[in-house]
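Quick one:
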Amino acid sequence: MKVKKISVACMAAALLLFGSAVHAGDIIAGKARSASCAGCHGAQGISSNPLWPNLAGQQAGYLVKQLTAFRDGSRTDPMMTPMAKPLTDADIQNLAAWYNSL
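Output:
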């Protein structure tokens, strides 16, 4: 049996292609769901207060991880934890897609 070598470039391309599907959310649904986020993070994901991070252009995977952590209690914050508690997995994916698209 002959074993084929896979180049690093091929592996990286496969990860980019298939890895992005893990965080594929609906941008339009995310925009609609983001209304409650806009008070702190801005309507376009740019916060006017340095205490709150900008979300525009943030990596979707990072946003999914952080929102899930706030929702599940592994990360806590007096303002974010109650905001994230009611989010479904789909809400989180959609919000991540929306903010990543900005």
